């Protein structure tokens, strides 16, 4: 499996959100996209999800054009994705109800993903009875239950407290290792991107475009202690410097243009 973006641009009238984005994600990779506000991170993910179409360029998955949403891509947005009238297990089963599989297969998939995300004991609970972190676990389990080729994460932990956020980071990395699913994640948190990703792609602003594509040379087996390692701290600092420089350049252009 290969996800490929070639010369992708997106404009909204006179506003150019993305321009000339080239990005390739191989099967089983975990790639994080970071950048300052206005760099087009969420726009990029929306295009890959098929919720919007590029103004220019091409997006392909396994050589086939991405022209709309499909079961080969599972999307987890930041919040507000669960059906409040459905229990946890019925939320996870939602996408499976649309697939031509047997009830036994559907039940088995739901059971496995509830166990994988630590939700077995909450299967009969409604979303309002869950914490924010538990609700995001349900959203991730639901997206993965359909066995997509690519899991798309749009700042899924941005609204969580620090401890819950770190718990979710550990969970997502473990689920990625257990399932082998390709992951493309957007986040504003550079530390999160370095911890989770095998690559970190930095987007510049105005318009959004790839400013850097950095390999994360850290062990595959990571726990939270790696965040204190000198190599981790140095990589985080270097990526933060790139993001900061791009944001300052954008601000300077905007200020000069307003004079």
Automatic annotation (TrEMBL):
<keyword id="KW-0813">Transport</keyword>
<dbReference type="Pfam" id="PF00005">
    <property type="entry name" value="ABC_tran"/>
</dbReference>
<keyword id="KW-0067">ATP-binding</keyword>
<keyword id="KW-0547">Nucleotide-binding</keyword>
<dbReference type="InterPro" id="IPR003593">
    <property type="entry name" value="AAA+_ATPase"/>
</dbReference>
<dbReference type="InterPro" id="IPR027417">
    <property type="entry name" value="P-loop_NTPase"/>
</dbReference>
<feature type="domain" description="ABC transporter">
    <location>
        <begin position="3"/>
        <end position="230"/>
    </location>
</feature>
<dbReference type="InterPro" id="IPR017871">
    <property type="entry name" value="ABC_transporter-like_CS"/>
</dbReference>
<protein>
    <submittedName>
        <fullName>NitT/TauT family transport system ATP-binding protein</fullName>
    </submittedName>
</protein>
<dbReference type="GO" id="GO:0005524">
    <property type="term" value="F:ATP binding"/>
</dbReference>
<dbReference type="GO" id="GO:0016887">
    <property type="term" value="F:ATP hydrolysis activity"/>
</dbReference>
<dbReference type="InterPro" id="IPR003439">
    <property type="entry name" value="ABC_transporter-like_ATP-bd"/>
</dbReference>
<dbReference type="InterPro" id="IPR050166">
    <property type="entry name" value="ABC_transporter_ATP-bind"/>
</dbReference>
